[in-house]
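User: Continuing from earlier, I have the next pair ready.

Assistant: Great, send them over.

User: Here they are, in order.

Assistant: Folding the first of the pair now:
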Amino acid sequence: MSDEIERSYPKTVCIGGGTGLSTMLRGLKLYTPDITAIVTMADDGGGSGVLREELGMLPPGDVRNCITALANIEPAMAKLMTYRFDKGHLKGQSFGNLFLAAMYGICGSFEEAVTRMGDVLAITGKVLPVTTEDVRLYAEFENGAAVLGESKILAVKKLSNCRIRRVKLVPEHPKALPQSIEAINEADLILIGPGSLYTSIIPALLADSIADAVKNSPAVKLYIANVMTQDGETEGYTVSDHVKSLFDHCGGRIFDKCLTNNKVLPEEALEKYKEEDAEQIFADMDELKRLGMTVYERPVAGIYDGYIRHNPRLLAKEIMGIYADISKEKGAEMP
């Protein structure tokens, strides 16, 4: 019996970074072992920024989060990987970042270090940096202001008090990791987001050939909308604003399906977000339909340790249900 007949799960590619992507991965690994996370490499702040400057390595933070999310390890080990030092020279640094830095020193290449770390932690699927070139994120604002460095965008956004017009990588169009393009070309399901629009998702799509590969793929392509707007990036944005910005940066429509949360969250949970001008996002259906979007509204949000997040298990269940429904509509046998 061929692999295509035996396989009952989709080859799934997830593109982005940050908390949103790692949250989704924790749920997806319960439904498919064939996951490839393609992760942005533009972070230059916090512990990642320190290791980037001192060791000359690529930023480990987003990669480490994704590896940890896909890991199949004991709870004590999981806690160790997310442990963050709170004093001394290591204050603010996570053990997981140092683990990856040590593996980088042993392997000599960031790509190999990521692979080896994944092997050690017995992850489901694989994690790939979108590029292994040393890139920085550059942002331009509607008032003409500009800044170089992902970690500086929030402060300049606050000072400018206007929307981000465009972001780009410096140098522009860095070569994408060949395995990333290969994974997209072979995917049955491509998930874009959730995560920070301008500092996680779009930078992952700006590496050379990534957006084109997604655009040309026959896979089911689904954008996972954020539950909340984000302070310093997307205050006042609707779901369609997110979609328009993605299309503008990628040179056209790269997906035509969108999953949004429609669970109304309690006012007390939303209250602290109001201090940052952040609010719950709901689908603005008329504008999304005008953009050619098929929109799936599902109750996939929850509250965890006081923070509003996607529910990993519910989100993954809904994603797989949508994929199955689309496959049936196409009259195709699920792979």
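And the other member of the pair:
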Amino acid sequence: MPYESNAFSLQNKVSLVTGGGRGIGLGIAEVLAGAGSDLVLVARSESQLASAAEMIKERYGREVEIISADLSQVGGYGAIVEQTMDRFGRLDVLVNNAGSNIRKSFLEFEPEDFDAVLAIQLRGAYFMAQAAARQMVKAGGGKIINLASLTSKISVPNISAYGAAKGGIFSLTKSMAVELAGEGVNVNAVAPGYVRTSMTEAAFSNSDTQDWMLSRIPMKRFGSPEDIGYAALFLACPASDYITGEVLFVDGGWMAA
């Protein structure tokens, strides 16, 4: 098969990135914009979204729609897709990145803590993907990329609800992939290792913890949002058209060690 020069391009595509105002979500959005995609960024903080949109427009020359929404709340997912269609007339890629975490011992976790984490990490991802998939099926195809985690497969103290949610994302990705394969919708996940962001800052606040993390990473460095962004780009672009139901660990070799 000859080399296809557009295999890694998202020119004339539209990508929706949840949690796109900062951290890993913003890193993913930048990479997708650099590959030619226009963007819809969804997050709770309108000010963060506005700053992110301005930067992407100036740096990459792409069109950006911002939607302030709390994805932990029931409903509203269809409205996000409708607003995307109203602005761009298409939706090619969904990156389910929005997340939250509460760090507590398993013995101290309260039901409301559990609900708060899973409401966005699992339920929100589930129904955001459902709303996007319904539109993609109508259009004849699309790409859905969920954000899993090292904790989809390993255990880390004091984040049991987060780990439960990310284990759910691992399984959900495969279930969605099987159901949607015949509809032309690819569903995969990126599972980041340790990437320093505002949400993970607590894990980096102790030098002993940092040393422990680095001791488990064969590449001896932490990841960057752009590292995750390039993995998402591969799963979003035509080069991955025959890949579905996979969870790609981007962890510096942690899972291989």
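Worth noting for the second one:
Helices lie at 23-34, 46-60, 77-88, 111-139, 160-180, 201-204, 207-215, 225-236. The longest strand covers residues 185-192.
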